[in-house]
Amino acid sequence: MYGDVVEMLSVMTGKVDAWYLDGFAPAKNPEMWSDSVLKAIARLSAPGARLATFSAAGSVRRGLEAEGFSVEKRQGFGSKRDCVSAVMTDERRGGTQLAPDARVAVIGSGIAGGCMVRTLAARGMTVTLVDAFAEPGAGASGNPAALIAPRLPRVRVPFGRIMASAYHYAIRFYDSLAAEGTPVWLGARGAFTMARNDDEEQRQVRSITAFGWPDGIMRRIEPDEATALLGTPVSKGGVWFAEAGTLSPPAITRHLAKDVETLTANVGALMRTEQGWQILDQGGQVVGCYDAVVVAAGIGIMPLMRERHWPLVANRGQLAYLPPIKGAPVVPVSYGGYLSPLISFTDGSSGHVLGATYAGQDELPPDGWQDLNADDTQGLINMLRDNMPSLDVAPPVGGRTALRATIRDYMPLAGCIEDGLYSLGALGSRGFLTAPLLAELVADQMIDAPQPLEADLVKLLDPRRF
After folding, report:
1. Do residues 108 and 298 make contact, with C-beta atoms less than 8 angstroms apart?
2. pTM of the predicted protein model
3. pLDDT per residue over 411-431, tens digit each?
4. Which of 239, 343, 364 is closest to 298 using CA atoms?
5. DSSP-H helix ranges across 407-447
6. Which of 48, 116, 215, 363 is the most buried (most CB within 10 A)?
């Protein structure tokens, strides 16, 4: 977090194990050593947290002691005679957290569940992945391609700040999977978000100003440059995201689920017992008992948490699969809908993914939602032709439907529901963008570690907000 020390400490959450305070001498930089700064450091310190300062001024030592630190003056460095080492001795500052070797079940093997098991395993926990499907990511995360590029708002509202942080983290996350040998990226890197009308162009211009990212991350481009980057003629400008691209959901979800104990079960209920959280299948049989459970089941959260009255919505989405298009863009293009570059499908054929519809339902829709709708398919094709008329588009060769779990305030459910029960859900159509960072947020809450988003954003994501 970059900014004034008082402001940044005030928006931090979780407990810190070690501090190094390097704010020059109190005589030169008194704001760094103010009572408000030291109180914030104490508030954020875990029991036994260690602290070191280059400054050994008496006011620093007295201020730390007043906030519960045991302070020791030690030999300094180089020409500095003394420095300070301190330990937080106030045990009352401890929070509720899971043990490092806790047994945790993650329900759902899509991108949310996959990111959760990876980050929990990295923290040393024993993780079990539970899903109704034997194949990871067979639900809403099972599309053959996923476009990752943020659509930022005109101003830095909380939703936009979450999307911005999620995007930066997601790029590093997927690049790390690629470094492990996973074929994460499909086609060339980069993504183009077309300004399909004047309103969209104004939104893009204002968002570039509001977020202030370097050109190497996000910049406005005119039609001639867009044509050169895409390899196909376009008549409208837009925003170029150099690090973005097209992801391979099947490769990612399989990679995240490997080396993890997996149980195939259709979860029907969760029950809190003296031994921990029991998972029951729909027949009432016990699947297992765990120290904690994370529900990352997409629309599966709706029947599991029905009594909590969350304003969840199941949105039906439909894709179309197109045969290879001559002169198609080498990177994904979004324009309200989106077109992927040329990819390989699971049957060995090649083509493009054309997406995606967004039809809301107040409840889980009745049987039949899985069927491809000809009107939806034609609507996707018409939108593509309107925005990229130079492409010669042949009739689709197939498609796919799925249900996305969304919530009416558009903020995901990421955090603690009650002691030992957590949620990572309601990601809507932004699962591959938001899941990597929000999984870290949930995992940090589970062990009471410093969390990767500011306190006001953590509060907005809290499942208990309703």
Report:
1. yes
2. 0.92
3. 999 999 999 999 999 999 999
4. 364
5. 431-446
6. 116
